[in-house]
Amino acid sequence: MINIMRGRNGGVVLLCLVILLHVNGCRFASRFDKSTEPIVTRSILVAPIKNLSGFTGFNALAATDEFVTELQLAKGMQVASVNAVLAKMYELNMESVTGPQDAVTLAGALGVDGIIVISISRYEPYAPPIIGIAAQLYMLEDATIVQEGPDKFINPTVVARQARPFELGVNRQFAAKAQAVKVYDANRDDVVKAIKTYAKERAEQATPLGWKKYLTQSNYMRFVSRQIITELGL
């Protein structure tokens, strides 16, 4: 706010009310806070999780459903159902997503913006559980050209067997937009701390098991899913 006053000599004096400007300035700045910006909606599908762990009791489709359920909680995210993905894969005669070309083809066929490809490299479900997981996010906007050839593509599941993300030796159009390779071992203090935070965010510590609820098989997969979704920047 600016007040205009006349001085003794008839001149005009501009008086700035600093306090009011400060307050209004804060309000003005808040209009540009990112939290007030419209959320851009993205559509994503999750390819059926691949089990490379050797543990035959791992239910890949159930784990995929847990991941999808967690992904649906992300802001601005529309997620294709597991059944819709399986139906489209059957229609395309695609047994699994084995590389970027498959990923782009499947995402394009379902008309979504991107696809997440996941592999489980280690699975020990009994307390304290351990899950080794590799995930890659492909976006159609980053893969506008598809070239044929045996050496043109990266196999997303190979990442699961490596200690760190692989080096990309291909055209950037075929590279994953984001990738994460992690082992979540509930024996580790940092993982336990993350589980407690996850449980607190869901206001479910009042259950008899408290945060330990997320050490059970399906719930631990939900926890791991959330961590990987965050790692992918979603």
Please name the defining characteristics of this protein.
6 helices; 32% helix; alpha/beta
Describe the fold and architecture:
The chain contains six helices and eight strands. The chain is globular. The two termini are 42 Å apart. It is α/β, with parallel strands linked by helices and 234 residues long. Helices cover 32% and strands 21% of the residues. Helix 2 crosses helix 6. It has helices at residues 18-30, 60-71, 82-91, 100-110, 189-201, 217-231, and strands spanning 2-6, 12-16, 42-46, 50-51, 77-79, 114-124, 130-139, 178-185. Residues 1-8, 10-35 and 144-172 have low confidence and may be disordered. Strands 3, 4, 5, 6, 7 and 8 form a six-stranded mixed sheet that branches.
